[in-house]
Amino acid sequence: MRVTVLAVGQLKEKPYREMAQEYLKRLSRYGKYQVIEVPDLPEPASASPAALQQLKQREGEQLLRHVRPNDYLIALTIPGRQMPSPVLAQHLEALPLRVTGDVLFAIGGSQGLSDQVIARADEQLSMSQMTFPHQLARVMLLEQLYRSAKITAGERYHK
pTM for the complete prediction? Predict the structure, then answer.
């Protein structure tokens, strides 16, 4: 089973890029992890709510192109289920018993995830009720995946 982070937009700032690369490097000893980026679409300065909704929908279509029917999609949303790191580790460890495809995490762009992505998702996960920049959310997710891998492997990880 492969774990893929589907993300709208590139990590433009060097510190975020370096942190994400470091966690992917660390994760490589625990399995197959990858990040797939789809382009974030330019947001017009004075966009109407309908235009922003359409932008979010187009970004969602780009994300969904990478999701196969048997993949397990976890959408990162604010109202999603929150869980402590050890529970996330147990949850991820159990997925290969139920899932025939890969596990994918979807991180939306600045407008969030489209309704289509959320509807396709097998579950929604929330890192917090607070809103984070999607660049930071990606690094935080990779860190939690790394923490989960270490917990599952029985290795120590700081609290």
Answer: 0.94
